[in-house]
């Protein structure tokens, strides 16, 4: 049954696109829109409902992205929720509560920890931003690091045409194919962001066009802030997010008909006292909820944010905010959850402890949403009749048979008579276990050599490249 608000959101979005339109800053975008008969005034495009829906219908409802390890292939639109960790943290929260800048060593360590968790299908490179790599190089370097250290789907990259082509050179080299062959077997979860309100800028246009050129599934994710870059009401923010996605999707389909795209949202509210983004706000969870709902309405796969928080440290706020936002995603059929572990302080800070805490949240939400299935196997009537009123089920046949699977065995949570610092010790132990058990992906030497040549020719310091090579453990 379709949500009662979906049609109203659609109708308001169509009104917005017909009366306000979307501003496209790239001249090539304007040319494409005009060529397809869209009304354009200067750099503002005004869409009819027919134009939008024709493009929506062109976009596939399901597609596949291929990981190096087929175990981590993903199929948005299949009804499964796939997860990727945080992206972009510029600081690391230390255990003593102080902050430090991120380094290449953090890139290596985080990739290895996420590689350990099979619930995560997206991994690599961009979890944190290494401050020891020049700004104009870290996009290429993070992609290289992720492809060398992870067997999972690499996350998106962004930049102008030149940067994007270099990134696709590395992706093609990593899999021993040409860039054109990537069209037949997509290897990356690509993406772009809309500038709210209702602007698609030049860099994001070139990012999207390059992704579509090689037909890599590309999410369109506004990050509108209610009360700042979007209307203050959640309803207004959701309508604007919807209009931003649809107008950008229309451009995408006009550029590359039938290209795989994901309906996206990273939208939330602004804090009205400070005007800071509030990624852990309940309005954030509402935006993710309605991304899932509107994706179903348009029969499009969905990407949104996930385990989000504005907390400055790993405290109770860093638990209840991420739990709500991830539950909203998975409960409403979001296909891909990015920013799905390690986030603190509204994207600025990464925490190893928060990463592990988020792993546990995912397990709890999965267990809750699995629900129950009442049948002869799950209701052990014979044991219940035999035990009756005065005994226990500790040694019952059903308990012995299902004790390892029927109840979630938490990876870090503390139960029973344990010391107060047990949770912290469990986190430390899991981090170390992930690092100790890490195995790098099996990559042909020729592919590694070709990747290395590209990044060295671009000017990335060889010492950092060697760090990545040395971090691989077979």
TrEMBL record:
<comment type="similarity">
    <text>Belongs to the trimethylamine methyltransferase family.</text>
</comment>
<dbReference type="GO" id="GO:0015948">
    <property type="term" value="P:methanogenesis"/>
</dbReference>
<keyword id="KW-0808">Transferase</keyword>
<dbReference type="InterPro" id="IPR010426">
    <property type="entry name" value="MTTB_MeTrfase"/>
</dbReference>
<keyword id="KW-0489">Methyltransferase</keyword>
<dbReference type="GO" id="GO:0008168">
    <property type="term" value="F:methyltransferase activity"/>
</dbReference>
<protein>
    <submittedName>
        <fullName>Trimethylamine methyltransferase family protein</fullName>
    </submittedName>
</protein>
<dbReference type="InterPro" id="IPR038601">
    <property type="entry name" value="MttB-like_sf"/>
</dbReference>
<dbReference type="Pfam" id="PF06253">
    <property type="entry name" value="MTTB"/>
</dbReference>
<dbReference type="GO" id="GO:0032259">
    <property type="term" value="P:methylation"/>
</dbReference>
